[in-house]
Amino acid sequence: MAYPTVSAPYGFKPVNLIGGQVFAGQTRELPIASNTAGAINNGDIVRISSGVIVKETGTTTVSATGVVGVFLGCSYTSPVTNQKLFSNYYPGSIVASDILAYVADDPDQLFQVAVTGGATSTTITGISTLVIGNNLAISQPSSNSTISGNSNIGVYDSGSNTAFTLPVRVIAGIAESVDTSGNYTELIVKWNMPYITLTEGTPNTVAYNGGHSYLNPTGAASV
């Protein structure tokens, strides 16, 4: 059976963990505040803000306190039927006190992701096979599917592959996704480490930025 054609980005899809550790579908339940505006789609990147889950929209950088993982669905009591509802995505503006996001939150998680042409692009774009070991930015198109509930974020070459502020590191390319020009259209990536910035003054101050929030000593406070 031929490898399927990748016609559009599909978000971050958990595969295995660093070192070949198995991903058995583990997720963590984390709260979403009642009436949170804006959809969170399956495969979107999320962070913690004031103790609840919100969508991460950064491209070349992410929130200073980092990301917590990838959103894989949610549950809540429907304000229409008063019945428990399990959804592939969070549609936004749901008034319920028990909204729980299912998040792939392991800092060692590896993800399969498609390569796009830019920060808001949904066009699949080949990238050199030499990209392995480099850093990439996240593409964040303005809209996602309200039918499937799936994300359409991907990764792209921002032109600064060695920049430590970029949010993901390329671990491998998917050989079956190589296009007619010999370039990868899908990759395996991991979260980059938090990075330190120094502001000179009296006294000097050090700030920890980005990466996975579990590895960021600053903590996931409101941002």
Question: What structural class is derived from the secondary structure elements?
Answer: mainly beta
Structurally, how many domains make up the residues? 2
* Cα separation of the termini: 47 Å
> What is the number of strand segments?
14
The coarse silhouette is globular
Number of helices: 0
Work out the radius of gyration: 18 Å
The proportion of residues forming helix, as a percent range, comes to under 10%
**Quaternary structure annotation:** single chain
- State the low-pLDDT regions, or none: none
* Largest sheet composition: 6 strands, antiparallel
Provide the residue-averaged pLDDT: 92
Q: State which percent range the strand residues make up.
A: 25-35%
Give the strand order of the largest sheet, numbering strands 1, 2, ... along the chain: 1-8-12-11-9-10
Order of helices and strands: EEEEEEEEEEEEEE
